Predict the structure.
Amino acid sequence: MENLDYKRYYNSDNFDLENKKIFSKLWVFACSIADLPNYNSYFLAKMPFGEIIISREGDYFSAFHNKCLHRGHPLVTEQRGESNFVCPYHNWCYGANGGLTHIPGDTDFYFADKDEYTFDRLQPVSIKRLGDFFFINAQENPLAIEEQFNSEIISNLEKTRNKIGAISLSLSLPLKFNWKLIFENLRDPLHPIYLHPTSLTQEVDFYASQTKPVVNEDPIISLKELSSFSRDGDLRNVHAPYKNDFMLCDNGENYLNWLLFPFTHIPCPDGGALYSVENYVPVSAGETRFDLHLYITKGTGKTSPIPILYDWLMKAKVVLGEDFDAVTALQKLIEQSDQQQNLGAYEHQNLRINQFLDSYLYE
Amino acid sequence: MNKLVNILVDKSRLSQNALLGVSLPSDVQSSIVELEIDRLDNQLNLIANLNGLVLNLVSPETFSLYRGKLYQILSSNKNILPFDNFSSGQDVRVARWSFIGENSNISSSAKVGLSTYIGPNVVIGANSKVGNFCWLGEGVVIAPGAVIGNNVTIHDGVRIGTGSQIEKFNEIRQDLLANTNLTIKSIQTDFYGSIAYIHNV
């Protein structure tokens, strides 16, 4: 057994370090093509490093901070809309690519000539498209996304290209636990048989993977090792009718959790009828916002999308509710204790990641 | 000879009694299949293997939970054919696969769409229209002239005022006044207090 301190789950200094060195430097999932359905659509993504507008101008996509260049007022408050931005404070105008197009009364009130502006563009954020998904990075000159995700993850994400349809469902839910706790729960292959005996375990045969774990004790030396698929069990039913390339990871037979560090989780798609993307966005040391996106795939054809969305939502509700209750209870007691937690061999990946955080961030 | 497969996903008095009032074409052999649908979908696969007509998809408690799966199977199985349209009352039209609950009253010239479930003690006013794939709970009142779009869910006891227009995919939990025009395409769920929004419908 290995010990870990509890402080990392509630201490605000730790959270500040995570925000500065992880969330603001790594690629994070922002939205999909379904969130930008028209040639002049935008999507507002709320991230730990600020509110980011992902804007579409034809087939060109850009991302920038939701912050007017004048006094820093938010340009938009709605999550979706048309990418023609006018700040409600003094009506500064911006185009779909974030470029400043007009300042009302620029020469009369600001004594500014358009040719003399020292700024002409909203603060940009890097954006990368993988398949039909968009990832953003707060850095203007970010690390290559290939340094963060291994080739298997990137190639599987690329398989989603042109697979996502127009209809999607989204919801946000505030949760009272640290973002790391829920991911450690997701990486824990043992808990479903105890915590989800009547829900997830009915669909995934977790017993099939209950063999002696292959333990990797090597320290993490590459960011790629932080993200992974967890192959925790066999799907009891493989949904053949809508199976597509995305489902062909491992021939579509495994329960394949996509765990994209730092905070994106894609559970195994339901027969390829939809993609479920869960973002556990860190808000503070003890708070996380759960952003759920369900994207209907084109493979569903003329099948009514609403029942598919309902179906997944109701099933997810049961499993997630069980997880949220457990992790919320953990967080509550963790904050009242200075004790250490004791992790066993099967939790080696959680241990390795925490040891990585210890050496890279906290010490 | 066609075989009528009536799918009941519960064994409630509501469902069975409602079936008694349905008149069947003389060449259809009735066969009621009672199914307890679980998460493993074994029973759903059984449905897919049956050759015959489908009349009802009824589950008052868990309808939304499983209808996605049912539709997937039904839409991919060419052997399952729809039941013929039938009418009751003057100029009332009820489309195939729809279900009318016990003691419900559909007034003249009202229309009920495809695969719509109407619970018991529902009143649907004259000249009103209920779309496809709707779900109307027990005791719902649709006043005359109201138009309910497709895929609308109306919870038990809700009253919809005269001349109201409800756009598709809405979920109604409270009474609506006359001439209410509801266009918000949001579905209110009880997902731990949050609201799920459906986009680009």
Notes: Residues 51 and 78 of chain B are 9 Å apart (CA to CA). The mean pLDDT of chain B is 64.
